[in-house]
Amino acid sequence: MDLAGQETFNDSRGCCPRINPDGAMNGDDLVGFAVLKPFPRFLFALFVCPCVMGAGLALLQGSSAAAAAYGQTQNTTAGTGDKPVFRLDGGNTTYAFGVNERGELQQIYWGGRVGEHDVIDPAKSEAEKAAMDSSYNNTPQEYAGWGNGLYLEPALKVTFADGSRDLVLHYASSSKQDDHSIDVVVKDISRAVIVTLHYKMDPESGIVARSATIENHEPKPIMIEQAAAAAFSLPAAHYTLSYLSGRWAGEWTLNEETIHQGQRVLESRRGSTGVQLNPWFAIGKGDTSEEHGETWFGALAWSGSWRISVEQDALDKVRVTGGFNPFDFGYPLKPGEKLESPVFYAGYTDQGMGGASRLLSRFTLTHILPQAPSPKLRPVIYNSWEATEWNVSEAVQESLAEKAAALGADRFVMDDGWFGQRKNDHAGLGDWYVNKEKFPNGLKPLIDKVHSLKMDFGLWVEPEMVNPDSDLYRNHPDWVLNFPGRPRSEERNQLVLNLARPDVRKYVFDAMDKLLTENDIDFLKWDYNRNWSEPGWDQLPANEQKKVYVEFTRNLYSILAELRAKHPGVEIESCSGGGARVDLGILHYTDEVWPSDNTDPLDRLTQQDGFTHAYPVQTMVAWATDSPHWLNNRTTSMTYRMLVSMQGALGIGGNLNNWTDEDLATAKRMIAAYHQVQKTITQGDLYRLISPTNGSEFSATETVSPDKSQAVFFAFVHSTREGRGFPRLQLLGLDPKASYALGSIEGKAAEGTPAEASGAWWMNHGIEVALRGDFQGAAFRLDRK
């Protein structure tokens, strides 16, 4: 028996009730889908996290035997067995939902963790306020179908074969997967459309992973027109929405706005994550600040077209719904077929935006990244792009490698220009063979040279793209996204391969597999430099062609997963014309991401501030490049550029042939210092002490190791005025009773600063940094004695 008293089955395919095509449950007919398995092939089911003690799930209903059977305290006021209440506890969070008197699955509570013995009442639908505000609209459903007069954002919208578009989902059954997860099945009131809602609560952070599996057991096909992963609800209050926006070279702008009645839509229609908006949000209640106040946050794990809607209804309640973007969307399901949604991760904290970002960062490090729960430190890379652009050769690359090794770099990456007839961005994409004019003996001599210098070797690729001037396109012009008979829009002189096609998927995998098999490559910089246009797939019937939005991304994930399985030592960076493909979906298959093509250090301060609200420092590649910078023509010192980049996964991207001896010496010294404290910087808890946004002259960050044995903090000034110095920094996150010794990485503290003091001193009294001038920076470390 499952938690709700329904019969279930258990086999290698998963755990859920069996349901006949006519909708009756008999335990015989619903088979074939696996749920809650650790990191399956596609991210659609990526909602399992390694579990440890400290969290729990309870079904609180009228049966004391049922509650006792799972070691939970009975909620004695929870009603009868047909109105179950489900409770998930983790970290400092409780998430509760249940079945109301109409049979709808309704959110009851999401916020700070309540007591083990506290009673959570059964769900009760909201009253109708007027004929225009029906109870069905007012009630915060967990996963509402579009039907019964729903005017708010639905989680699921379908068209049946007879033209009906009415879908009303009611609770059918539930099955407990483990102490921290549950599957709940909802079903239309008369049609055989079954949705399994998957819930997984991380016991440490309280972040809940939600997704949906939609199945058609009708005798005829249905068309899914809109499918969310989940919907979350908040009670009426004054809320502020935070989200990230941007453009090329101007990514990661943090926006804050008051939530009003109506809908704020965050989305990408571009076929991939996009740079204009990112699939992350945070909602603060009342006067929430960086370190104080209730904050709800979430991130959608999907690298295709996506949408998150934040909607305040007529009664001032807020609903957040996220999943596939319904624009130009249509996914047909034949009888017996299913569609699995992406995963929508969401969490709660009472420690403001900083607390939210620390929880999500720690969760990503320990549950999302390919090497989770203990990802390796990112190698300090040198990338040759700015030194050579497309004019690569064995001799020039070897010379750069020698200089990079002398600086202390861990990895040498050769960028674009090594393959096909690639002399500029007009030709060659798709032809993944080594250019014999540039490398007459192949890549092996260069790779051997790099390895002899004790560095890893990495290579740039852009496998999802093709130039019309390429052998691949000449042989397979039908392989690109296109509408037959219509123009094919080129961007950057390239077209997008239709990765949804099985033959294209095979070609891309085989090309990358051959490259990795024949060469001792340690790293791929996987680029993606344009958005979609003409998203046709004429191999399929007209009513199935919009599946391209799902199958393209699904195949991308499967290629990356298969390559990693076959070549386990290879690491991958996600790059997309800068930061246009960064999300929790791609981060399950890649080790790091490229935040922006803009490496100007002043601009990077604000970009890094925005980035770290949603994603870990560990994944944020940050290069120190040449000065004056190519984009802004701004001149800055090597020390300033290095310090800015040391706040992330440090890399060097300048033309080392033009660096002075002094610059080379500075970079070498600071790379050595970075190596000493890198684990704290990239895997510690981040505190944004002073934000560089809104025209601030100052900025400061601090990271504290999880065991509080070390802290590293950075301070930057744009320009000081009228003799005023840098504000006193009151540090955060230290052990107040421990003693910490102060050490300088770069720069000086004010005269009279103690060499050693308690954590309480550093947090309450603080430290004054001697910073004056333009574009200046400093960094310090605190080590527990």
Extended strand count: 38
- Decide which structural class fits the backbone: alpha+beta
So what's the overall shape? globular
Low-confidence stretches: 1-55, 60-80
Based on CA atoms alone, the radius of gyration comes out at 27 Å
Strand coverage percent? 25-35%
Helical amount among residues, as a percent range?
Answer: 10-25%
Quote the average pLDDT.
Answer: 90
Distance between the termini: 56 Å
Instruction: Specify the number of helices.
Output: 13
Specify the biggest β-sheet. 10 strands, antiparallel
Description:
- By secondary structure, this protein is of the alpha+beta class.
- 19% of the residues lie in helices and 29% in strands.
- The protein has 13 helices and 38 strands.
- Strands 8, 9, 10, 11, 13, 14, 16, 17, 21 and 22 form a 10-stranded antiparallel sheet that branches. It has an 8-stranded parallel sheet with strand order 30-29-28-25-24-23-32-31.
- β4 (85-90) and β5 (93-99) form a beta hairpin.
- α8 (502-518) runs parallel beside α9 and α11 packs parallel to α12 (661-683).
- The longest helix has 23 residues, at 661-683.
- The radius of gyration is 27 Å and the shape is globular.
- The model is unreliable at 1-55 and 60-80 (pLDDT under 50).
Short description:
The protein is α+β, with helices and mostly antiparallel strands and 785 residues long.
List the helices and strands and how they pair.
Elements: E1 9-11, E2 14-16, E3 56-60, H1 64-69, E4 85-90, E5 93-99, E6 105-112, H2 135-138, E7 156-159, E8 169-178, E9 181-188, E10 193-201, E11 208-216, E12 222-234, E13 239-245, E14 253-258, E15 262-268, E16 280-285, E17 295-301, E18 306-312, E19 318-324, E20 331-333, E21 338-340, E22 343-349, H3 352-368, E23 381-383, H4 385-388, H5 394-407, E24 411-414, H6 444-452, E25 456-461, E26 465-466, H7 471-475, E27 495-496, H8 502-518, E28 523-526, H9 548-566, E29 571-574, E30 592-593, H10 601-614, E31 621-624, H11 638-645, E32 649-652, H12 661-683, E33 685-690, E34 698-704, E35 710-719, E36 739-746, E37 756-758, H13 759-765, E38 774-784
Parallel strand pairs: 23-24, 23-32, 24-25, 25-28, 28-29, 29-30, 31-32
Antiparallel strand pairs: 1-2, 3-4, 4-5, 5-6, 7-12, 8-9, 9-10, 10-11, 11-21, 11-22, 12-19, 12-20, 13-14, 13-16, 15-18, 16-17, 17-22, 18-19, 26-27, 33-34, 34-35, 35-38, 36-37, 36-38
Helix pairs in contact: 5-6, 8-9, 10-11, 11-12
